[in-house]
Amino acid sequence: MSFATVLNSSSQLHLPIIRRLPHRSSFRCSSSSTTTSVKFDLKTYWSNLIGEINRNLDDAIQVQYPDLIYQAMRYSVLAKGAKRAPPVMCVAACELFGGSRAAAFPTACALEMVHAASLIHDDLPCMDDDPSRRGQPSNHTVFGVDMAILAGDALFPLGFRHIVSHTPTDLVPESRILRVIAEIARSVGSTGMAAGQFLDLEGGPNAVDFIQEKKFGEMSECSAVCGGILAGAGDEEIRSLRRYGRAVGVLYEVVDKVLQERTKTGTENGAEKKKQGKSYVSIYGVEKAMKIAEDLREKAKRELDGFEKYGDRVIPLHSFVDYAANRGFTVDV
Amino acid sequence: MSFATVLNSSSQLHLPIIRRLPHRSSFRCSSSSTTTSVKFDLKTYWSNLIGEINRNLDDAIQVQYPDLIYQAMRYSVLAKGAKRAPPVMCVAACELFGGSRAAAFPTACALEMVHAASLIHDDLPCMDDDPSRRGQPSNHTVFGVDMAILAGDALFPLGFRHIVSHTPTDLVPESRILRVIAEIARSVGSTGMAAGQFLDLEGGPNAVDFIQEKKFGEMSECSAVCGGILAGAGDEEIRSLRRYGRAVGVLYEVVDKVLQERTKTGTENGAEKKKQGKSYVSIYGVEKAMKIAEDLREKAKRELDGFEKYGDRVIPLHSFVDYAANRGFTVDV
């Protein structure tokens, strides 16, 4: 589901519990798509950013010999409907602390590359066995399992290489570039997304919190943290970004599962149930999942309180929470 | 096949063409295991290094929750019989230019991690379909295909993270650490090993040079180059290390295939033939492959000529060429 398609769609969700939350003064961006701030054109901000990110990604993965591996990489990274949430969150977090887009863009693009790589591998038949993603055939459906594994294996290092070759060292000290690389490596590896995927395949029901945080919270956490590191945010600010990003990533996933539950036909078989993985909805049911979503939304918003001093620059970070919670925010991409 | 097992084994190879090459003055280390230099105890050098590398790798991958992913990572990285050629070459190249082991070790260990990751993925049923490696069951044979993919996915980023977290910045400027990360990323990705593996699966017979260089030369080239970068070698010296490392990696593989051809039973079926991939032996036959090996040996040795000014410190780099060509060098590990 893309930002472009959610407005007024049947999948739009307004969690009743969340709607009862009072609008605090820090909510510059409403959960309704009709009330964006007059001081800050959020739709233009998002649209411009996504356009710039798409152009950068297109440039970064040019087809060369042997063509097919680059075509497989481009197929997933440049897929239509990609929300670009990791790179946008990275840029938004960097700009919050006065960092520039030029400083953030190489890392933002790298985040999209490693995100695409992890999704390619997650979709494999031996993993989540998803033949399609965002309404299009999965990478392995088009290119075969062997090629999909290699495309992922190539996108992970390309991300790290892109950061090193493209980050302007007159804007970002090398020590920060190294911290960003370590942060992304932590996030995708055995302390992060790989562990989440493993437990989603193998773990018992008690692993649900771990799976949600690692499989769905890590990319968002890492994106926010990298933006902060690049701009020179302080340790306490980085810790806030970490908690904020993780909460947003898990919130998005919980709401996604609630929406899926609503559109269920009631005829799915055991294999389909297994494929859905261990979610709060499958373990605790819709009602408790919605309560968890409410808590996550509050948690994410609370972390942004400390950033209100930065004025309108915090608005994009609010928009992630609002979109994750209600899917009521849209931009044309 | 490990360094510990090759001495006097039936697999020992003395390529006749290579043996006709005159011993040049630069050959401090003979291709025979009995004539190491009195000034430089090569066996002790190798044994100590491998022991230190094994201890560092053991420390770097401690089992934590969820245990099984770490066990799968350790299974391949700490496998008995691993030759540790990439890390030893990295340390040897770093020491050649006066760099310290403390400077080289984090990168050396990272090279072994990404090397293990690429071997785990290469062995998968949809790739080279190798149920065993170094006489032990392959990672996927023990842990399953899903787990083997995840173990590889976790080892690649762990390598990058290990470099950032362990390289002492008082010994290695951050700019060099960034160059090393970019070099490893280049080597494992779509411009390197992933492209070689892809063409080994899909490419036509004309791709044999590309496959040999990318699939088998990259790791060795990258290891030598990283050692040079860490020690501050000049651009021309790095170019020499690059050509040297690539030649050694391909040489090792060509000789391996010649040895395999010699021990063939003559009963392998089509699937087994396919599994052998596109080698110089399978495309051109043993005789031409041995001529190619001779050329590669000469090329690698020639690149070391410029480093003779560093005295005994060039000996370990000679030992790689000699071992790759003749398997006549051994250390106890």
Automatic annotation (TrEMBL), chains A, B:
Reading the lineage from the top rank, the first entry is Eukaryota
Q: Does the keyword Glycosyltransferase apply?
A: no
Q: Coiled-coil region(s) at which residues?
A: none
Q: Which CDD domains match?
A: Trans_IPPS_HT
Record's keyword terms, sorted: Magnesium, Metal-binding, Transferase
Q: Could you tell me which InterPro entries the record lists for this protein? A: Isoprenoid_synthase_dom_sf (IPR008949), Polyprenyl_synt (IPR000092), Polyprenyl_synt_CS (IPR033749)
Gene Ontology cellular component terms for the protein in this record: cytoplasm
GO MF, one term, reads: metal ion binding
Pfam families, per the entry: polyprenyl_synt (PF00348)
Respond yes or no to whether keyword Metal-binding is given for this record. Answer: yes
Q: Which cofactor does it need?
A: Mg(2+)
The alphabetized list of GO BP terms reads: isoprenoid biosynthetic process
Q: Record's PANTHER family?
A: FARNESYL DIPHOSPHATE SYNTHASE, HETERODIMERIC GERANYLGERANYL PYROPHOSPHATE SYNTHASE SMALL SUBUNIT, CHLOROPLASTIC
Family statement = Belongs to the FPP/GGPP synthase family.
Descriptive protein name: Polyprenyl synthetase
- What species does this protein belong to? Dillenia turbinata
